[in-house]
# Entry
Amino acid sequence: MYHDRGRVISIGLLLLTLIFGSPAAVLSQGECNIVGPPLVTTGDISAADTDQTLRLFRDGRNTTCLFNRPQFTSTGTYDADQYTFTNTEAGPVCVQVDLDARGCGVSTNQISMAAYLGTYNPSSILTNVIADPGLSTGGNFATSMSFSVAAGATYVIVVHSVNAATTCPSYTFRRTITNGCRNTGFDAANDGSADLALFRPSGGLATWQTKPLNGTPTSTQLGSSGDIPVPGDYTGDETSDVAVFRPSNGTWYTTTNPATNYGAQRWGISTDLPVQGDYDRDGITDLAVFRPSENNWYILRSATSAFSVVNLGVSGDKPVPADYDGDGKTDVAVYRPSNGLWTALGSSGNYGSFFIQRLFGISTDIPVPADYDGDGKADTAVFRPSEGNWYVFQSSLTTAQVRIFRYGLPGDIPQQADYDNDRKDDFAVFRPSNNTWYINRSTLGATQQVFGAAGDIPATSPNRIP
# Structure
């Protein structure tokens, strides 16, 4: 089995300018609405802190705003800090918490955290517990969790040592408050239900044909033959925008406004593959490319206007970015058709180690990662055209994890997305032979619609595999 530890290099704005030209902030799709700036809390673990009896068992599975699980405990007494907060928003929120333990000094001074609804009792740590990251900070000095809180509710975040009698001189945790979360997929109305979207290349001009399942079609001109569709919310208004990446000049065009040169931003070269996503969880889609010649990911982060380079993969690997660890950030990941190996670096661990490394699929499969079980994490999944079967490794389960669902024919193009706003991605295909969409909605049932023409490229799902 191949192991690539995934080098991560953060590079400043000056070098970005030298390599790619003058940068500009760009704006996103398939994420949550951000409520205010991130809220930062700092502290330290010392022997004088509250003694917590037992700690939560680290099973490697973090809770999310859509998923919790039975909790178990490990023996021992641990030093702990507690912080109490209240949701002051008018409605429920999703609280994303990132713990940074670089100030602990060495990885053996591991810490972790948990969240409690209302009150926390250090002598009864299973009472009122609602979330934990499933992991300690470890050698990557980072871990994450998320949980939902009703309007007006109080919650407690507890940071504690993992090894008894160890301390941490300094740690930081960052709370990002979000609401209105939605799954990836073209959604022009921001109603949580994916629309049918098609890119129609035609010589020097191209058009997008889009429509809600039960709505009126819209035609928009943007792009030309040879462009790659890369829809996202590039205007920051929480709705999906049509956009294209032009390999011939390495340029992204993200608006339909000619006065701004259609939002042109050079980011990449002709052989790059676009892998746009929200890599920094600011509610804004980031420009990103995967360069097969180097197996490098070049990610322009909208939150800082700086970029990162992440190395992952070997020749022949296909990029499959998605949020596999459920922290609200797009993760760097590759799929290897030669042996069906998936490798994903979890953003919740600073891309420093594998979150997933799994054999799942055969050489003729099409990778279709998405959140099919509604736990807030992308599942590793493949569509097998020869059978018309979908094979899904469900992240919410520990036993009987593989789900097989027959939906499609050879020649169909998978277009998985959430078409009925239930936070579960649905099995769906576009059939070029009859220009028909076949969609099996997890809540509202199966439906089909004729929508398209010869040569159209479906663009509802962020399925970028060439």
In short: Residues 193 and 421 are 5 Å apart (CA to CA). The chain is about 0% helix and 40% strand. The longest helix spans residues 13-20. The two ends are 24 Å apart (CA to CA).
